TrEMBL record:
Residues 82-97 have a biased composition (Acidic residues). One of its GO terms (cellular component) is membrane. It is found in: Membrane. Belongs to the TMEM104 family. PANTHER family: TRANSMEMBRANE PROTEIN 104 (PTHR16189:SF0), TRANSMEMBRANE PROTEIN 104-RELATED (PTHR16189). It comes from Sphaeramia orbicularis (orbiculate cardinalfish). It is a multi-pass membrane protein. Keywords: Glycoprotein, Membrane, Transmembrane, Transmembrane helix. The gene is tmem104. The keyword Membrane applies. The chain crosses the membrane at residues 12-33, 39-69, 139-158, 203-223, 235-252, 302-329, 349-374, 395-415, 421-442, 466-488. This is Amino acid transporter transmembrane domain-containing protein. It comes from the Eukaryota.
Amino acid sequence: MAGGITETGEPYSAFVGLVYMFNLIVGTGALTMPKAFAMAGWVVSITLISFLGFMSYMTTTFVIEAMAAANAQLRWKRREQEEIDDSDSTSEYSDDDVMVRGRSEPETKPILSVQRSGGHVDHFDIVERVEMGQMASMFFNKVGVNMFYICIIVYLYGDLAIYAAAVPISLMEVACGNHSCSAGGVKYNDTDPCWGSVTRKDAYRVFLGVFTLLLGPFTFFNAQKTKYLQILTSLMRWIAFTMMIILALIRIGKGDSEGKPPAASLSGVPNLFGVCVYSFMCQHSLPSLVTPISNKKHVGKLVFADYVLILGFYVLLSFTAIFCFNSSYLYDMYTLNFTDNCKVLDIPVLRYFLGLFPVFTISTNFPIIAVTLRNNWKTLFHRDGGTYPWVVDRVVFPLITLVPPIVVAFCTHNLESLVGITGAYAGTGIQYIIPAFLVYHARRHLEPVMGRDAVNKHQSPFRHAFWVWFVLAWAGSCLMFVTANIILTDTKK
């Protein structure tokens, strides 16, 4: 996930919603963006990130439209149930009365013709939180629902693997790096010593083991009441981002910068694509984010403004990074460029803060993502009326949630590849394919019920069917391009 989990409860204003959405999207992906930006070249990067931001904005509007359609369908079903209950209550009348009522009010009459007296009701008003899994159950068939959960599960596995690798990497760099201000711009290898005969790779695995022992047990329980912890980590995140941008700008302004990035390098495009998709990810959290907004009249403008601000932030962070630092020395985790380079930052406390910043922020999100993944596994295999044995519920599901990402993190700590692959495959499904199918099937489901004249005030600006097929075609072509590039790269090796 790009950012932290947004907890909702009490209604909040549109401005607060804008801030929440900004915090949700801008997270771990932003820290891996500068290196991907440098590898693809700044002209290609700015073009691709702008286009992918536009595509993400489009599918975000698709999800919001589907949420409104889901709310309308839920109201219609409740209205039908009320009619059935009312018809049951007519048993005290004569059979002729019941027959008349039955002929005049069929079960499937359009919702617009059964308005209650007492004023107009906007059936598309988003007042009930309908998660993407519930929308999938409403609009997809059984195969589609299963594919949805598989896509979500794969994405969350990638998320956990990224988190499980990012924290030990940061700890290893802080513990094994040379902080004497004499090692700036040095690139270390995994086989270099850390503590005596212990190599950096060994130290990474030790920290990974400690990370697993400390945070892994949370997978077996429920993570709740993390609101204030999320506020604290968001505050730390913005202090760190602001520091990095200002420090890079100061160095560039002094003329001490080392960066001479290329204008274009097509070999870096596939990985940049994955990183950008991952960095714009928010579609799966929109129901929790949009529903509590008290006045949804300007939700469309809010989302557009958020994407413009986020795009501007990514460009600012990446441009200052690639012109401040030599591209060949940029770390996968951008914060690490400030830990051993006193030319940029010579205050030890602040260097340690930036070096350890991902540890604090990512560690708070890991248990929440793990519990979310565990619950999705349970939902995928759930059968109506059935319950799981205690061992399966409390042991098997947590283990299949925790073990795979830890194994992946043990085998590789290449964050650039982990983020790129997660974004390129599972991220493409969540950000492009699922929203496109959701809005397509939502429109088809509601048209017979609501009628062609019904107006969804949350309808996407991209309402023509062409845009749905364009998104699906784009997603399919990107998957083929990324897969072909991986195969060709492996063949050359």
